[in-house]
Design brief:
Aminopeptidase; about 210 residues; nine-stranded mixed sheet; 6 helices; alpha+beta
């Protein structure tokens, strides 16, 4: 089995939280959560620079699962108490001498502010490190205070501002880049998360979405 093949499919769990592969049969529930959170998610969602129609749910799932089978992505649903509540995806995975990927996520507003996103990110980053990635980054718009709280709670290292990095909400947006390497968290990011002071100052550590 190749290193890439061991990335996915995978199921990761901690307490009320469960991460499992995104499936076509999630369509109805996924659409319901997206509809209820439309205004909550829109300012942080990726858009097409040419104004093209975004892919359907089935097309999105098919594309992500194909990338996952090729070792280029880890698309996972976030479940809280057994109910679909969001998504966390590691994308842009490259192997060889690079061995890096980028994490994006979104969460249902109904369960935001409960620490689920930091835990989900920590679980999936640890999984990526366990199968051979060396570096994972998260790119966040400077205006997205809840998402910035996620990476700060996780203790990710800030690497600077990347101009016009992603097309978000209809325009090219600057992003702050944060990263962590396997060498920085030999104990695991999830272990470090739960070892940090739970009453650290800052906004609630859950984010609506980030590309």
């Amino acid at each position: 089995m190749t290193t890439g093949a061991r990335l996915w499919p995978v199921t990761l769990e901690h307490g009320r939280l469960r991460l499992r592969p995104l499936r076509r049969r999630d369509l109805t529930v996924w659409n319901d959560v997206q509809l209820r959170n439309r205004d909550w998610l829109r300012p942080w969602e990726a858009t097409s620079p040419d104004g093209g129609t975004p892919p359907s749910f089935v097309q999105m799932v098919s594309g992500l699962r194909r990338q996952a089978r090729e070792g280029r992505a880890v698309p996972l649903v976030i479940e809280v108490d057994g109910r679909l509540a969001g998504q966390v995806t590691v994308s842009l995975i490259a192997w060889g001498a690079f061995r890096s990927g980028s994490v994006g996520y979104w969460i249902d507003r109904a369960v935001a502010g409960q620490g689920h996103v930091p835990c989900a990110v920590a679980l999936v980053v640890d999984h990526c490190f366990e199968v051979g990635l060396n570096r994972v980054e998260v790119n966040i718009r400077p205006e997205n205070a809840p998402s910035l709280a996620v990476v700060r709670k996780l203790g990710l290292r800030e690497e600077g501002l990347r101009r016009g990095l992603l097309h978000i909400d209809g325009a090219w947006r600057d992003h702050l880049s944060f990263a962590v390497t396997a060498q920085e968290v030999p104990e695991g990011l999830h272990t470090r998360l739960h070892a940090r002071a739970p009453d650290a100052p800052g906004p609630h550590p859950d984010a609506p979405a980030e590309g």
